[in-house]
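Our preliminary data section would be incomplete without showing what the modeling component actually yields. Below, a chain of 129 amino acids is followed by its predicted structure, encoded as tokens that our downstream tools consume directly.
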Amino acid sequence: DYPDYPDVKRLQEAVSRADGLILVTPEYHGSVSGVLKNALDLMSFDQLSGKVTGLISVLGGQSNSNALNDLRIILRWVHAWCIPEQIAIGQGWKAFNPEGKLLDEKLSQRFDQFAQSLVENTRKLRGLN
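Predicted structure:
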């Protein structure tokens, strides 16, 4: 409990209410950003256990999955469920146009598949049709 930090409680409540999560992180020095790791450390099994989660990383260099693998380990530890699809956007500085739209059509299609998987797996694990 963090009674002196109402923003932590708001974050915990928002995560608890969510049917699923999409976690996005820049990859810093081959791992998850400290800000995201800190936010996850403020969560507990109450917020994350059984939560369906999709993972995305963005990095400046070539595509890599270190941050995504680290997130899978963290989330497995708190019994969250990660969908099998994941997205690593390498050379993020040239992946988007000035309006923020993805330039690579194949990557855009992967995002569509990612979103579909997140919805389908959330429905399955929550027993929804």
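The mean pLDDT is 93. The longest strand covers residues 81-89. Preliminary results of this kind motivate Aim 1 of the renewal.
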